[in-house]
Write a structure and sequence with these properties.
The protein has about 270 residues and is α/β, with parallel strands linked by helices. Helices cover about 35% and strands about 25% of the residues. It binds adenosine-5'-triphosphate (ATP) and magnesium ion. Magnesium ion (MG) binds next to α1.
Protein backbone atom coordinates (compact mmCIF):
# COMPACT_ATOMS: atom_id res chain seq x y z
CA UNK A 1 0.00 0.00 0.00
CA UNK A 2 1.42 3.40 -0.92
CA UNK A 3 1.97 6.17 1.58
CA UNK A 4 -0.78 8.05 -0.18
CA UNK A 5 -3.38 5.89 1.55
CA UNK A 6 -2.35 7.32 4.90
CA UNK A 7 -2.83 10.95 3.92
CA UNK A 8 -5.51 12.51 6.12
CA UNK A 9 -8.16 15.00 5.21
CA UNK A 10 -6.71 18.43 6.01
CA UNK A 11 -9.89 19.35 7.88
CA UNK A 12 -8.98 16.65 10.38
CA UNK A 13 -5.36 17.62 10.99
CA UNK A 14 -4.81 17.89 14.70
CA UNK A 15 -7.33 15.18 15.51
CA UNK A 16 -5.86 12.64 17.92
CA UNK A 17 -7.36 9.85 15.83
CA UNK A 18 -5.68 10.49 12.51
CA UNK A 19 -3.07 7.78 13.06
CA UNK A 20 -5.81 5.18 13.32
CA UNK A 21 -6.64 3.20 10.18
CA UNK A 22 -10.16 2.61 11.44
CA UNK A 23 -12.13 3.89 14.38
CA UNK A 24 -15.65 3.50 15.73
CA UNK A 25 -16.73 6.35 18.01
CA UNK A 26 -19.71 5.94 20.35
CA UNK A 27 -21.71 3.73 18.02
CA UNK A 28 -25.32 3.00 18.92
CA UNK A 29 -27.33 0.64 16.73
CA UNK A 30 -30.86 -0.57 17.26
CA UNK A 31 -32.97 -3.13 15.42
CA UNK A 32 -36.55 -2.23 16.34
CA UNK A 33 -36.62 -2.52 20.11
CA UNK A 34 -33.31 -4.38 20.33
CA UNK A 35 -30.26 -2.29 21.19
CA UNK A 36 -27.50 -4.26 19.47
CA UNK A 37 -24.77 -1.70 20.26
CA UNK A 38 -24.69 1.13 22.77
CA UNK A 39 -21.92 3.75 22.78
CA UNK A 40 -19.36 1.30 21.45
CA UNK A 41 -15.93 2.61 20.48
CA UNK A 42 -13.08 0.69 18.90
CA UNK A 43 -9.68 1.82 17.66
CA UNK A 44 -7.58 0.07 15.03
CA UNK A 45 -4.03 1.42 14.68
CA UNK A 46 -1.73 0.35 11.87
CA UNK A 47 -0.02 -3.02 12.11
CA UNK A 48 -2.14 -4.37 14.97
CA UNK A 49 -4.49 -7.25 15.60
CA UNK A 50 -7.50 -6.12 17.63
CA UNK A 51 -9.53 -8.91 19.19
CA UNK A 52 -13.29 -8.59 19.66
CA UNK A 53 -14.96 -11.16 21.88
CA UNK A 54 -18.30 -11.55 23.62
CA UNK A 55 -21.13 -14.04 23.98
CA UNK A 56 -23.69 -14.81 21.26
CA UNK A 57 -25.75 -11.74 20.45
CA UNK A 58 -23.23 -9.34 22.05
CA UNK A 59 -23.14 -7.22 18.88
CA UNK A 60 -19.86 -8.29 17.25
CA UNK A 61 -21.22 -8.93 13.74
CA UNK A 62 -23.39 -5.80 14.02
CA UNK A 63 -20.27 -3.75 14.75
CA UNK A 64 -18.64 -5.23 11.62
CA UNK A 65 -21.74 -4.22 9.66
CA UNK A 66 -21.42 -0.65 10.93
CA UNK A 67 -17.65 -0.52 10.33
CA UNK A 68 -17.94 -1.89 6.80
CA UNK A 69 -20.88 0.33 5.86
CA UNK A 70 -23.62 -2.29 5.45
CA UNK A 71 -25.42 -0.89 8.51
CA UNK A 72 -26.00 2.79 9.28
CA UNK A 73 -25.73 3.43 13.04
CA UNK A 74 -28.40 5.38 14.89
CA UNK A 75 -25.63 7.55 16.35
CA UNK A 76 -21.85 7.66 16.44
CA UNK A 77 -19.19 7.81 13.73
CA UNK A 78 -16.86 5.60 11.77
CA UNK A 79 -13.52 7.11 10.76
CA UNK A 80 -10.88 5.85 8.37
CA UNK A 81 -7.45 7.51 8.55
CA UNK A 82 -9.10 10.23 10.63
CA UNK A 83 -11.80 11.07 8.06
CA UNK A 84 -15.49 10.51 8.71
CA UNK A 85 -16.87 7.72 6.51
CA UNK A 86 -20.10 7.09 8.44
CA UNK A 87 -22.26 7.93 5.45
CA UNK A 88 -19.94 6.40 2.84
CA UNK A 89 -20.76 3.15 1.02
CA UNK A 90 -19.10 -0.23 1.62
CA UNK A 91 -17.45 0.15 -1.82
CA UNK A 92 -15.97 3.51 -0.85
CA UNK A 93 -14.60 2.07 2.39
CA UNK A 94 -13.17 -0.92 0.47
CA UNK A 95 -11.45 1.54 -1.82
CA UNK A 96 -9.95 3.27 1.23
CA UNK A 97 -8.47 -0.06 2.33
CA UNK A 98 -11.14 -1.87 4.35
CA UNK A 99 -12.00 -5.49 3.73
CA UNK A 100 -13.99 -8.15 5.60
CA UNK A 101 -15.00 -11.77 5.76
CA UNK A 102 -18.45 -13.04 6.67
CA UNK A 103 -19.43 -15.42 9.46
CA UNK A 104 -20.83 -17.93 6.99
CA UNK A 105 -18.49 -19.39 4.41
CA UNK A 106 -19.67 -18.55 0.87
CA UNK A 107 -17.50 -20.07 -1.83
CA UNK A 108 -18.52 -20.65 -5.43
CA UNK A 109 -18.39 -24.22 -6.72
CA UNK A 110 -17.51 -23.13 -10.28
CA UNK A 111 -14.39 -21.25 -9.25
CA UNK A 112 -10.96 -22.50 -8.26
CA UNK A 113 -9.16 -21.20 -5.20
CA UNK A 114 -7.02 -18.96 -7.40
CA UNK A 115 -10.07 -17.62 -9.27
CA UNK A 116 -11.71 -16.61 -5.97
CA UNK A 117 -8.76 -14.37 -5.20
CA UNK A 118 -8.60 -13.01 -8.75
CA UNK A 119 -12.29 -12.08 -8.73
CA UNK A 120 -12.10 -10.46 -5.29
CA UNK A 121 -9.14 -8.40 -6.41
CA UNK A 122 -10.76 -7.24 -9.64
CA UNK A 123 -14.07 -6.31 -8.00
CA UNK A 124 -12.37 -4.24 -5.33
CA UNK A 125 -9.96 -2.50 -7.65
CA UNK A 126 -12.61 -1.51 -10.21
CA UNK A 127 -15.18 -0.08 -7.88
CA UNK A 128 -16.72 2.18 -10.53
CA UNK A 129 -17.97 -0.86 -12.41
CA UNK A 130 -19.04 -2.75 -9.33
CA UNK A 131 -22.75 -2.67 -10.04
CA UNK A 132 -22.33 -3.65 -13.66
CA UNK A 133 -20.09 -6.59 -13.09
CA UNK A 134 -20.55 -8.23 -9.74
CA UNK A 135 -18.54 -11.26 -10.79
CA UNK A 136 -15.41 -9.29 -11.57
CA UNK A 137 -14.59 -11.64 -14.45
CA UNK A 138 -15.57 -9.02 -17.03
CA UNK A 139 -12.79 -6.84 -15.70
CA UNK A 140 -9.38 -7.01 -17.25
CA UNK A 141 -6.43 -8.09 -15.19
CA UNK A 142 -3.99 -5.44 -14.08
CA UNK A 143 -0.30 -6.00 -14.74
CA UNK A 144 0.46 -6.98 -11.12
CA UNK A 145 -2.45 -9.37 -10.79
CA UNK A 146 -0.79 -12.74 -11.24
CA UNK A 147 2.12 -11.85 -9.00
CA UNK A 148 -0.07 -10.32 -6.29
CA UNK A 149 -2.48 -13.26 -6.22
CA UNK A 150 0.40 -15.73 -6.11
CA UNK A 151 2.00 -13.82 -3.24
CA UNK A 152 -1.24 -13.87 -1.23
CA UNK A 153 -1.71 -17.61 -1.84
CA UNK A 154 1.88 -18.25 -0.81
CA UNK A 155 1.44 -16.24 2.38
CA UNK A 156 -1.67 -18.23 3.31
CA UNK A 157 -0.26 -21.60 2.31
CA UNK A 158 -2.79 -21.98 -0.53
CA UNK A 159 -0.37 -22.40 -3.44
CA UNK A 160 -0.75 -26.21 -3.54
CA UNK A 161 -4.54 -26.04 -3.91
CA UNK A 162 -4.63 -23.03 -6.26
CA UNK A 163 -6.21 -24.89 -9.17
CA UNK A 164 -8.71 -26.94 -7.14
CA UNK A 165 -12.40 -25.98 -7.01
CA UNK A 166 -12.76 -23.94 -3.81
CA UNK A 167 -15.67 -26.07 -2.60
CA UNK A 168 -13.55 -29.24 -2.87
CA UNK A 169 -10.97 -28.19 -0.27
CA UNK A 170 -11.30 -28.98 3.46
CA UNK A 171 -13.16 -26.47 5.66
CA UNK A 172 -9.96 -25.11 7.21
CA UNK A 173 -8.53 -24.41 3.77
CA UNK A 174 -11.86 -22.89 2.74
CA UNK A 175 -11.59 -20.43 5.62
CA UNK A 176 -8.13 -19.48 4.38
CA UNK A 177 -9.59 -18.93 0.89
CA UNK A 178 -12.08 -16.56 2.52
CA UNK A 179 -9.22 -14.72 4.21
CA UNK A 180 -7.39 -14.73 0.85
CA UNK A 181 -10.35 -13.07 -0.83
CA UNK A 182 -10.36 -10.37 1.84
CA UNK A 183 -6.61 -9.86 1.34
CA UNK A 184 -6.63 -9.99 -2.45
CA UNK A 185 -7.05 -6.24 -2.94
CA UNK A 186 -4.22 -5.55 -0.46
CA UNK A 187 -6.33 -3.82 2.18
CA UNK A 188 -4.90 -1.98 5.20
CA UNK A 189 -7.55 -3.33 7.60
CA UNK A 190 -9.38 -6.65 7.48
CA UNK A 191 -12.39 -7.55 9.62
CA UNK A 192 -12.51 -11.31 10.27
CA UNK A 193 -15.82 -12.69 11.57
CA UNK A 194 -15.11 -15.99 13.34
CA UNK A 195 -12.48 -17.27 10.91
CA UNK A 196 -11.74 -20.34 13.08
CA UNK A 197 -15.36 -21.47 13.31
CA UNK A 198 -15.61 -25.20 12.55
CA UNK A 199 -11.84 -25.68 12.35
CA UNK A 200 -9.96 -28.39 14.22
CA UNK A 201 -6.93 -27.61 16.37
CA UNK A 202 -4.44 -28.15 13.55
CA UNK A 203 -6.40 -26.00 11.10
CA UNK A 204 -6.79 -23.27 13.74
CA UNK A 205 -3.02 -23.25 14.30
CA UNK A 206 -2.50 -22.95 10.53
CA UNK A 207 -4.90 -20.02 10.40
CA UNK A 208 -3.12 -18.29 13.30
CA UNK A 209 0.25 -18.77 11.57
CA UNK A 210 -1.15 -17.39 8.34
CA UNK A 211 -2.49 -14.26 10.06
CA UNK A 212 0.82 -13.70 11.82
CA UNK A 213 2.65 -14.05 8.49
CA UNK A 214 0.35 -11.56 6.76
CA UNK A 215 0.77 -9.02 9.53
CA UNK A 216 4.56 -9.44 9.60
CA UNK A 217 4.88 -9.33 5.82
CA UNK A 218 2.39 -6.60 4.93
CA UNK A 219 1.65 -4.76 8.16
CA UNK A 220 -2.06 -5.45 7.62
CA UNK A 221 -4.25 -4.72 10.64
CA UNK A 222 -7.01 -7.12 11.63
CA UNK A 223 -10.09 -6.99 13.78
CA UNK A 224 -10.63 -10.54 14.89
CA UNK A 225 -14.07 -11.66 16.09
CA UNK A 226 -13.80 -15.06 17.70
CA UNK A 227 -15.45 -17.43 20.11
CA UNK A 228 -12.07 -19.12 20.50
CA UNK A 229 -10.84 -16.83 23.27
CA UNK A 230 -7.45 -18.54 23.53
CA UNK A 231 -6.82 -17.79 19.86
CA UNK A 232 -7.78 -14.12 20.34
CA UNK A 233 -5.64 -13.69 23.45
CA UNK A 234 -2.76 -15.39 21.66
CA UNK A 235 -2.93 -13.31 18.46
CA UNK A 236 -4.18 -9.88 19.50
CA UNK A 237 -2.31 -6.76 20.57
CA UNK A 238 -5.43 -5.46 22.30
CA UNK A 239 -8.84 -6.95 22.98
CA UNK A 240 -12.31 -5.43 23.38
CA UNK A 241 -14.95 -7.42 25.24
CA UNK A 242 -18.57 -6.76 24.29
CA UNK A 243 -21.49 -7.83 26.44
CA UNK A 244 -25.13 -7.08 25.59
CA UNK A 245 -24.04 -4.42 23.09
CA UNK A 246 -21.75 -2.55 25.48
CA UNK A 247 -17.99 -2.52 25.91
CA UNK A 248 -17.39 -4.47 29.08
CA UNK A 249 -13.66 -3.84 29.03
CA UNK A 250 -10.71 -3.20 26.71
CA UNK A 251 -7.03 -3.93 27.24
CA UNK A 252 -4.02 -6.06 26.48
CA UNK A 253 -4.52 -9.83 26.38
CA UNK A 254 -2.93 -10.08 29.85
CA UNK A 255 -5.27 -7.44 31.26
CA UNK A 256 -8.26 -9.18 29.70
CA UNK A 257 -7.21 -12.58 30.99
CA UNK A 258 -6.86 -11.18 34.51
CA UNK A 259 -9.93 -8.96 34.52
CA UNK A 260 -12.36 -10.10 37.23
CA UNK A 261 -15.26 -8.50 35.31
CA UNK A 262 -14.42 -10.51 32.23
CA UNK A 263 -14.05 -13.72 34.17
CA UNK A 264 -17.36 -13.19 35.92
CA UNK A 265 -19.36 -12.00 32.93
CA UNK A 266 -17.81 -13.82 30.04
CA UNK A 267 -15.84 -16.85 31.10
CA UNK A 268 -18.47 -17.61 33.72
CA UNK A 269 -16.07 -18.60 36.49
CA UNK A 270 -12.88 -17.26 38.02
CA UNK A 271 -9.74 -18.48 36.29
CA UNK A 272 -7.19 -19.86 38.69
CA UNK A 273 -3.91 -18.02 38.65
CA UNK A 274 -0.84 -20.23 38.64
N1 LIG B 1 -30.76 -7.73 11.06
C1 LIG B 1 -31.16 -7.81 12.34
N2 LIG B 1 -32.44 -7.58 12.69
C2 LIG B 1 -32.84 -7.63 13.99
N3 LIG B 1 -32.02 -7.92 15.02
C3 LIG B 1 -30.74 -8.16 14.73
C4 LIG B 1 -30.23 -8.13 13.38
N4 LIG B 1 -28.90 -8.41 13.40
C5 LIG B 1 -28.59 -8.61 14.71
N5 LIG B 1 -29.69 -8.47 15.49
C6 LIG B 1 -29.72 -8.58 16.97
O1 LIG B 1 -28.67 -7.75 17.47
C7 LIG B 1 -28.01 -8.38 18.54
C8 LIG B 1 -26.54 -8.53 18.20
O2 LIG B 1 -26.38 -9.52 17.18
P1 LIG B 1 -25.01 -9.86 16.49
O3 LIG B 1 -25.28 -10.78 15.36
O4 LIG B 1 -24.29 -8.60 16.21
O5 LIG B 1 -24.25 -10.62 17.67
P2 LIG B 1 -22.87 -11.42 17.63
O6 LIG B 1 -22.08 -10.89 18.80
O7 LIG B 1 -22.25 -11.36 16.30
O8 LIG B 1 -23.35 -12.90 17.97
P3 LIG B 1 -22.75 -14.32 17.48
O9 LIG B 1 -21.58 -14.57 18.39
O10 LIG B 1 -23.87 -15.27 17.76
O11 LIG B 1 -22.38 -14.23 16.04
C9 LIG B 1 -28.74 -9.69 18.79
O12 LIG B 1 -29.71 -9.47 19.78
C10 LIG B 1 -29.38 -9.98 17.44
O13 LIG B 1 -30.54 -10.76 17.60
MG1 LIG C 1 -21.75 -12.76 14.89
Amino acid sequence: MSDGARVVDTADVGSPTEDLLLEAVDITMRFGGVTALEDVSLQVPADQIIGLVGPNGAGKTTLFGVLSGLLRPRSGSVLMNGSDVTSRSPQHRAHLGLSRTFQRLELFSELTVREHLVVARRVKRKRHNFFFDLTGFGERSDSDEAEAVDATMELLGLADVAEQPATAVPLGTGRLVEVGRALAAEPTVVLLDEPSSGLDEHETAQLADALRRVRADRGTSFVLVEHNVDLVLDLSDRVTVLDFGRVLTEGTPTEIRNSPEVQAAYFGAPVETP
